[in-house]
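Researcher: Sequence of F-box domain-containing protein follows. Predict its structure.
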Amino acid sequence: MEDDSCGLDFLNLVSPDVSACVFRLLDDPADLVRAAAVSRSWRRFVVGNNFSKILCLRICPDIANFTSAEEVNRSPQPPPTAESSRDVELKARERDYRIYSYLAGALVSAKPSMDCILHCIGASSTDNFPGESIDNTLEPRDRVHDRPSYWSSGGQDYSDVPESLTYRLNSDMCIVDEIRVQPFKAYFQPGFPIYSSRAVRFWMGHSKLPHGSESFVTDEDENLMAIADEKYVWTYISPEFPMLQENVLQSFKLPRPVLCIGGVVKVQLLGRVQKQPIYDNRYYICVCHTQVIGRSLSPVFMVEISDPAGYSVLKYLPSAKNLCVEDAMQDNGSDSMQDDGSDSMQDDASDSLEWHSLVARYRQMRHMAIMNVLLGPMQFMDEDDVGGVSDDDPFA
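Model: Prediction complete. Tokens:
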């Protein structure tokens, strides 16, 4: 510490290498911020050595997948002035300090986790589409209105053929702790077989396509092309977890919390254990419910795909910290947000177009998530409305 009584500074008493070793021992983001507030010399030392980014990487190694980090402000920044290269570098380091200090705090936040799935992108195969669509896996019950609710793979003659279910999360930036999968028990077949997989593995990443151009499974389209691996950059692949042949929501805790950069999760189902005892005697995998448990870092943090190669850029929106409050006011038709002069909404012509674009994307995803909760992921019709169940449906 700095001793005002004798004018001594810890940083001047030991070598820079020893000081760096001491600062790297700080594992709480709040401690690092407090250290940077001790004095100007301490702040220069913390900022100049990128300790906030180093701490972020230690907490969450997935941060290394970002090619760069940018700060996006609500109001346009003044035009650049002539600056020395040293001044430019100092400003860049200060910016990185702000971004990664706040990110480190968000990574260790104690906010409660929830199911983060927003939409189904597609499945590697579906036996009877759309009746056994991946959309059914968003319904927590295995039967709705006395009708079974589950996804079924296509049948295979060999037990080692894998399948996959791909989902879009409700945020570009989610910390995922665990994934839960419930195999389906065919209570309408002899012996009540459970169509689990032998094991599961989880992939996380982002689409290479620009935001807004990705597609989701619909009642008319199985969306098989949208799940091809070449359309994604996978930034994390989990180890394999054995799956029990039990009709329960099985929890697969990840070895560490993972930052899902881009909001896409693929559940890979490895190996088959159950043949259909009637009809075709082939191997199937059936899932009735899936959850991705985590918490969102948006809207303060968003992701932009920088080019067709799929490189990701971390976007920090400091003005979006109170965005949820503003959203609530907008949803209620209130103009009270104008009362706060320091953070009031400015005229659209003077605001940052990039800030508004990122915020609009967040609001759209948030609106879709709310609608999914209110309306439910699926609608079942009575048998009279659909003409009954087909006689050639193997799971009828």
